[in-house]
Amino acid sequence: MFENILGNDKIKELLETSIKNNKVSHSYLFVGMSGIGKKMIAKEFSKAILCLNENKYCNKCKSCIEFDSNNNPDFFCLEPDGNSIKIDMIRELQKNIQEKPIISSRKVYIINDADKMTKDAQNCLLKTLEEPPEFASIILVGENENEFLATIKSRCMILHFNPIDDEQMKDYLIKNYNMQVSSNQLDLFQGSIGKAISLKDKQDIYLKVEELIENMENKNIIDLVKQAEILYKSKDEIYEMLDYINIILLKKAKMDERYTNCIQIVENTKRRLNQNANYDMSIDNMLFNMWEEII
Ligand SMILES: [Zn+2]
Question: Quick count: other Cβ atoms within 10 Å of Cβ 294?
Answer without folding.
Answer: 17
